[in-house]
Amino acid sequence: MSIQVSVPLPTGTLSPALAFWWNGSNERLFPVEIGTFGGFDSEGRPDRARPMDTLIGAGGERNYVYCLPPWTHGAVVDLSFSLPDDGRTDAVELTVDDVRVVSDDRCSDFEGLFDRGFESAPNRWLGASIGSADQRVNMKPEPAVAHSGNGVLELSYGGESSETPPSADLAMETYVLVPSADETGGPAVALYTDTQVQPSATAEWLLGRAERCRGELPDGGWARTEICLPPEWTGRWHRLKVRVNPPDEAGTGEERFRVLVDDLELLTSPDCPRACP
What we know:
Layout: E1 2-6, E2 16-24, E3 29-35, E4 51-56, E5 62-67, E6 76-81, E7 94-103, E8 128-129, E9 136-141, E10 151-158, E11 170-177, E12 186-196, E13 202-207, E14 213-216, E15 222-228, E16 237-245, E17 256-269
Antiparallel strand pairs: 1-6, 2-5, 2-7, 3-4, 3-6, 8-11, 9-10, 10-17, 11-16, 12-15, 12-17, 13-14, 13-16
């Protein structure tokens, strides 16, 4: 199912957010994409290149709200909901209703970086991907856990059985407005992560749609990572992604493993630009 949504420009009293009601078959995954329709991929699916979320059916009704990022403001965007592509032949159902643009005060002040401190929690994160029903990408209003402020983004897996095998598709992504270089250095983005995963798992950052630049994130408590941005993209939006690669046995134990992300920052760094790692 695909619909078009007209997103207004923000004003002093309007902070655009997307809201909808939905209900889906239990423990089935329903991909949601947003962007400008660009045809179909090799498997006949709509190609919008921007994942919005993966809904996990729970056999009950839910209402979700997402802050809309600056690249959608003043535009008409395509919004698509898809049935699972998991090879199963049993019946599956997804119902979506009451799709609308609303105003949410938690969705203001997103110039250059979209919700840099995840302070719009408990809203949903626009740009989440999962590969199995035991995985989650959630914003949480937990000041005791956050690096600072009230909100934090959590990518987690494990802790419950799932009919869907584990996958490396556990990720969040956002778009950053690349700043200009100055006398102190080239453009960069920094983020804080707290990586608490199994030894055989990896957490990494990736840059750009082709994911050509990447680097592993440190583990053991909150740590700051600076990532150089391409100066040729100054003044344009560039994709930043954080991905967790769970091991094959993820989802079979009782313990949940997680990566926390918080406090993104645009800056210039004397270490930038530099070649991709």
